[in-house]
Amino acid sequence: MTELLTAAQMRAIEQAAIASGEVTGLELMERAGRGVVEAIFEEWPELAPSWGPAPKPPEFSGQDEEGHRAVVLCGPGNNGGDGFVVARLLKEAGWAVEVFLYGDAEKLPPDAKVNYERWGEMGEVLPLTPQASLELAHRHIVIDAMFGTGLARPLSGLGPFLRDICDCVDAGGSLQLQERWPFSPPVVAIDIPSGICADSGRPIFDEAAAERIRRGSSPVCAAANLTVSFHARKLGHALALGGFWCGKVVCADIGISSQASRTLPRSELVKMANESGSRFKRNGHKYSHGHAVILSGSVGKGGAARLAARAALRVGAGAVTLGCPPAAVIENAAQLNAIMLRAVKGVDGFNAALEDDRINALCLGPGMGVSDESRGLIEAGLKSGRAMVLDADALTLIGRDALLFGMLHEKCVLTPHGGEFARLFPDLAETLAAPATTGPAYSKVDATREAAKRAGCTVLFKGPDTVIADPSGRCSINASVYERSAPWLATAGSGDVLAGFITGLLARGFAPMRAAETGAWLHTECALSFGPGLIAEDLPEELPKVFRALGI
Ligand SMILES: NC(=O)C1=CN([C@@H]2O[C@H](COP(=O)(O)OP(=O)(O)OC[C@H]3O[C@@H](n4cnc5c(N)ncnc54)[C@H](OP(=O)(O)O)[C@@H]3O)[C@@H](O)[C@H]2O)[C@@H](O)CC1
Ligand SMILES: [K+]
Question: Any idea where the YjeF N-terminal domain is (predicted)?
Fold first, then answer.
């Protein structure tokens, strides 16, 4: 886990470093530019100076044919300033560099202006207007330094360039594949591809741009094969389709010290998981590791609850009981061994089961159905005050029923996917779905935080960019992107397993927010460990391997 920053947090860190005298803004820009160039040479070593002369484009005229060629597209802010630094450093490394500027050089902010002038001593700056000819097919690299964390509104007048950039990115960004000229060079975005909001991962566009998308013409933002950000990743690299637009993200160290760049690596997760002896199962009997109860649906509907129960047991709950309607006992008995089984006849039966005060965690919803009886069971569960995961059908019922919603308490964890979130919080979902016309845009983080505050409990809003928030505003993201991308996790029953992991961790004594964070992290980790071909049943079975790798 890595801490992700908003644009405002990054600006505050930068300002604090400058105010403390630690560094100047100009020095930071220099380090940022250097970081980009180093990242390019690391990603494509054949472009590094030590690799010797560049391949020559036979039909290319008007440029120094010996060197590598880059085009740098600079914008009107400090992102553009970084671009001028990159242009200078590449030129110093022997490259042929062409620089275009979108906007008025006179209005550049001070540090960007200094670097514009430094570049001006080495080469010219052409205006990035519709008449500009970028000749991308004759470059080795395209640098997108148009907009970064300061994007405030939709891009305009850049459509054809954005199309060319996206076409290059689609071509794969591998120099090895580019045996013949002309080719589609890799695109490197400075900080974030231009047009993407760094706080939300969403492209900023207006109705006119939306119409262009509908007509299938120019895109509304750039994309990249490699994105080089600074100090720490931003929310927009992980949320929404940020991972799709950014390609690969590397973070250049620009030498500012701040707590906000603190990371939460695996070792800390292990420490977290082992915080108390009882969680480590060093001692005690099964009930000292918690007892989780998971309610299943009626006959033929028990699969989801069984998956959740298996996951809760594997993640370490001492005991797991599956409670089902009497008619479903035979079906479940035929499937379960280590998981205990109890016939639960309606609300009274559930209340009777809850008299056992060793039961400390519940999971309601998977395969439960949306009957009145299910509603009663949820009400009984909430009244018991137990730590509790509410998933699937339970979320549908709570979304329909203000009374149930009002009974949610701080020991609850809601685990909605997009559709369930919209049923629970229709206004928040609508705001999130509306086109983002100004930056910073409303993000999944904003929506989940607001939802957790409103519900008074932890909310885990599922997706490839899972966001988890508690009512205090604490928030984290479990993004299955980049090196943690596991698209095969989108498989039937995977959500039930996640609910089970969280329930098991609640039973083991994890606080709701931490249970949700850890459950989500382990869920992705199991998927990564298993790999493609995964089905939901595989996830709990992969846990022992994941735990062993973590040293637990
Ligand atoms: N923070 C740090 O620690 C470090 C930051 N660094 C770098 O600085 C970058 C942030 O710089 P930044 O704040 O100047 O923002 P940036 O994205 O360049 O553009 C803002 C300009 O664009 C304008 N504008 C906005 N939208 C527009 C549109 N659609 N169409 C047209 N204009 C538009 C906006 O104008 P305004 O809204 O004021 O009218 C303003 O003039 C960051 O991403 C990183 O690369 C590094 O050097 C290392 C340390
Ligand atoms: K950019």
Answer: 10-262
